[in-house]
Amino acid sequence: MEPSPKDTTTQKKKRAICDRCKFPKEKACICKALLDTPLSALFNRCRVIVLQHPHELRRKNRSLPLVELALFGQHLSQTEQQNSSASDDDFVMKRIVGRRIGEKSDDAVLKLLSDPNEVVVLVFPHPNAMDLEDGLALAESKIKGTSQNHEGETKSATNTTSPDGNLSGKKMTLIFIDASWKHAKEMDNKTEAAGVWPKHLIRVQLTPSTSSTSNQEETSNDAFVQRRFQIRAPPSPDHLSTAECLAWIASRVEGNSDIYEGIMKVLDYMVELWRGFARPDGDKRKGGGSFTDGDGCREMTQKRRKITSNKK
Question: Where are the annotated segments for Disordered (predicted)?
Answer without folding.
Answer: 143-166, 281-312
